[in-house]
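Per reviewer request, we include the raw input and output of the structure prediction for the construct analysed in the revised manuscript.
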Amino acid sequence: MIGSEAMTWIHEQVGATILADTHEHLVEESRRIFPLNDWLLPCDDWSLLFKEYLQDDLFSSGMSQSEVRRFYDPAVSAVQKYKIVSP
């Protein structure tokens, strides 16, 4: 167990930190604005946030390959994408 002096020091250090790397796998803004039409950018809406770690959760919960393709399809509406992912 960590002593209170160490915890105080850690709390002070975290409080003084200006930026914390949350280790997100988001596409850089410059690439998102000018897409290269590759696997990193299958779409240009909120479903892109599921592309990395959450995609594995979708597969584990039973989402089929065809549903995944529809989920990332830019021609599918946001409402339809919600209906795909909500179950």
